[in-house]
Amino acid sequence: MSSSSDSADTIVPDSEHRGLIASLPQLPRDLAQLARFDRPIGWWLLFWPCVFGVWLSGSGWQFGLLAWLLLGSIAMRGAGCVYNDITDAELDRKVARTASRPIASGRVSKRTAWIWLAALSLVGLVVLLQLPVRAQIIALASLALVAAYPFMKRITWWPQAWLGLTFNWGVLVGFAALANDRWPVAIAVYLGCVLWTVGYDTIYAVQDTEDDALVGIRSSALRMGGKVRQGVALCYAGAVALWAIGFWLLREDWVAWLTLLPVAAHLAWQVLTLDQGDPANPLERFRSNRWAGFLLALACFVVGNAGV
C-alpha cells in the first residue's frame, strides 16, 4: 500500500480536495483526477452559463432541469478533461504543474482513459435525452468546439477565446430548453460570457507562463506579457457591457442594469487584487469566479423573471 507521502506525490498541485482524493485507492484516485472531480471550479464554470440561459427564459426556478444540467456539467466537464489529457500528454510532461497528471506520468494508460471518457460521455447522453429536441441539437453542435479545443494552444495565442466559445455553450442550451424567441438576448449574454472566460482563464494561465514559453504552448497570458491586468480588465469590461446589452434587449429598463453591479464589482476586485508575483494569488482569483457566476445567475433570474 502506498504511504501518505507517496499518495501526495500522485496528486496534482492545484487539487482542492487532497484529503478525500488521497484516501482513495490509486486507480480511482487517478480517474477522479482525470475527470477533475477534485477541482469543482471547472464544472461550476460550465454549469453557471446553463443557469444563465434557463433563468433568462423567464420560466422560473426550474430546479429539476437545473439538476439535470448540473449532472451533465460534471460529467461532460470530466469527459472534456480526460480528452484534453489524452491529447496533451506529451505537452503535460514538460510543464511542472501538469507533469504529475495521471496520463502524463504514465499511471493511467490511454486505453483506460478512453474507456473512462466513454463512461462519462454515457452519463452526458442520459442528460441530453432529458432535454427538448431543440436544446439537444444545440448541445450536440458544441462537440466540434470541444474536439478542437486541445489543439488551439498549438495554433493560436488565444486558446482562451476558443475555451470561452466552448465553455459557455450552456447559455444557448439552457435558453433553448425553455424559449423559442428573443435569441439576441441569449447571444449577447453568451458573447459576454466568452469575454469573461478569456479574462478568468488568462488569470489561470499566469501560473504556467514560464513553462509554456519554454515548451512552445501559446496562451493569452503570454500574449499580454506585462499587461495581463489591463488585458483582463478590458475583457471583463467587455463582458459586463455585453451582459448589459442582453438585459436591455430583454427588458428596456435601465434599472435592470443595477443587477449587474455586484458581479461587476467582483470582477473589478479580481483585477485590482491580481498579483502575478504571488504563486497562490492567480489561482485564488481564478477560483473566485464561481462567485462571479453565482452573482450573474441572480441577475439573470431577477431580470428574466421580473413581472412574470
UniProtKB/TrEMBL annotation:
Similarity comment text for this entry: Belongs to the UbiA prenyltransferase family.
Pfam families named in the record: UbiA (PF01040)
Functional note: Catalyzes the prenylation of para-hydroxybenzoate (PHB) with an all-trans polyprenyl group. Mediates the second step in the final reaction sequence of ubiquinone-8 (UQ-8) biosynthesis, which is the condensation of the polyisoprenoid side chain with PHB, generating the first membrane-bound Q intermediate 3-octaprenyl-4-hydroxybenzoate.
EC number: 2.5.1.39
One cellular component (GO) term of this entry: plasma membrane
Main subcellular location of this protein, as a coarse class: membrane
Compartments, record wording: Cell inner membrane; Membrane
Enzyme class: transferase
Record organism: Alteriqipengyuania lutimaris
Name of encoding gene: ubiA
Database matches in HAMAP family: UbiA
Catalysed reactions, semicolon-separated: all-trans-octaprenyl diphosphate + 4-hydroxybenzoate = 4-hydroxy-3-(all-trans-octaprenyl)benzoate + diphosphate
Pathway note: Cofactor biosynthesis; ubiquinone biosynthesis
Transmembrane feature ranges: 46-71, 113-129, 161-179, 185-207, 228-248, 254-271, 291-307
UniProt record, GO biological process: ubiquinone biosynthetic process
Keyword Transmembrane recorded: yes
Name of the protein in question: 4-hydroxybenzoate octaprenyltransferase
Listed cofactors: Mg(2+)
Molecular function terms, GO-annotated: 4-hydroxybenzoate polyprenyltransferase activity
Entry keywords, A to Z: Cell inner membrane, Cell membrane, Magnesium, Membrane, Transferase, Transmembrane, Transmembrane helix, Ubiquinone biosynthesis
Annotated membrane topology: Multi-pass membrane protein
